[in-house]
Amino acid sequence: MQFQQLLYFVAVAETRHFTRAAEQVHVSQPSLSQQIRALERELGAELFRRARGNVALTDAGEALLPLARRILADTETARHEVQELVQLRRGRVRLGAPPSLCTGLLPEVLRAFHDLHPGIELLIEESGSHDLVRALARGALDLALVVLPLPTPSPALTTVELLHEDLVVVSSAAAAAPRRPVRIADLQGQPLVMFRHGYDLRELTVAACRAEGFEPSFTVEGGEMDAVLGFVRAGLGVAVVPSMVAARARDLRVTALARPGLSRTIALAHRSDVAPPRAARELQKVLLATRAAAGTEGPAPDRPAAGPAAQTASASDRV
User: Fold this and answer.
1) Bridge-partner residues for 253, per DSSP?
2) Distance CA 265, CA 73 (A)
3) What is the C-alpha to C-alpha distance for residues 319 and 187, in angstroms, rounded to an integer?
4) Which helix or strand (DSSP H or E) is residue 240 part of?
5) Of the candidates 135, 173, 170, which has an alpha carbon nearest to the alpha carbon of residue 154?
6) Do residues 224 and 197 touch, judged by C-beta distance below 8 A?
7) CB–CB of 99/126 below 8 Å?
8) Beta strand residue intervals within 64-212, DSSP E
9) Which of 70, 125, 20 is nearest to 274 (CA)?
């Protein structure tokens, strides 16, 4: 079994077309077809069902595809690892993170890393922890910031706790000031702006509401972090967000949650069976060096939004 054969196989599996796959990998279509047939002979099974205008994977092809993708990803990682040996003057790091951390923690961290290693390319994947764990497992990421506990236990991953962060309630500057601190029970019947499915924050907030015996009411749902903050600014409802995000939203009112409140633990994760590339290990050092400061960062409790609305709102109103 040859590396090039796996490359051609994945190209056909993804395009479902031999000619387009050949164009993608820059070989002639007959050469690609010949290598696929040689791979099938080596494995003793057909990988594709071929019909005019229709190429589909067989059961054997479906079984091989994730393994082939992982082998190709590991080979690409090895290539970059060798390139990075020249004093980290070039290379890349593939980092996954929840969107809330891309808004809060990462801009300063990535700037510090870029100042140290300007030749390293930074590729960022924004997604929820469940998707990031899967991306790590298949070799599509070098590192990921994930929320603990993981959605499903993964012995193939190594995690190091990075920070523990409180969640807070944000509301628009024009809205009446909430009773403070806010209890989870106070959110019952209140209009909430909610993140899309797959967000760790969505699952955490909904679970907290259900633990208090009610289903949360959404005025808008399905947004990313920037969209959710925009909807809150527009007065469509309140949202539960990380304190680091709220600290940067100076035009929103920030109110603490009553004890025990809600919090989340962020960890840095990588595959246990493959050491991260050198550039990724350097980024890991920068992230770990910032964890003490990041863990204490956050807005002051019950911070009013800037502007006259903060002075005229009634403190007795609910969220």
Assistant:
1) 171
2) 29
3) 7
4) strand 239-242
5) 135
6) no
7) yes
8) 91-97, 120-126, 143-148, 157-172, 191-195
9) 70
Q: Which residue has the tokens 């527009």?
A: 234
Rounded to two decimals, the pTM is: 0.65
Q: Which two tokens stand for residue 99?
A: 């969107």
Compute φ and ψ for 146, nearest 5 degrees: -130, 160
Q: Which two tokens stand for residue 1?
A: 């079994």
Burial 100-116 (b: 16+ CB within 10 A, else e): bbbbbbbeebbeebeee
pLDDT tens for each residue of the chain, 319 residues long: 899 999 999 999 999 999 999 999 999 999 999 999 999 999 999 999 987 778 999 999 999 999 999 999 998 888 877 776 666 777 889 999 998 888 878 998 999 999 999 989 999 999 888 889 989 988 999 999 999 888 666 778 899 999 898 999 999 988 776 667 899 999 999 999 999 887 888 989 999 999 999 999 999 998 888 899 999 999 999 999 999 888 888 889 999 999 988 999 999 999 998 889 888 999 999 999 876 554 444 333 445 544 433 333 333 333 4
If we measure between CA atoms, which residue out of 103, 111, 143, 109 comes closest to residue 272? 143
Altogether, the residues listed in the chain come to a count of 319
What's the Cα-to-Cα distance from 290 to each of 37, 156, 198, 218, rounded to whole Å?
A: 52, 26, 27, 35
DSSP string, 288-299: HHTHHHHHH--P
At 56, the amino acid letter reads A
**DSSP 3-state assignment of 236?**
coil
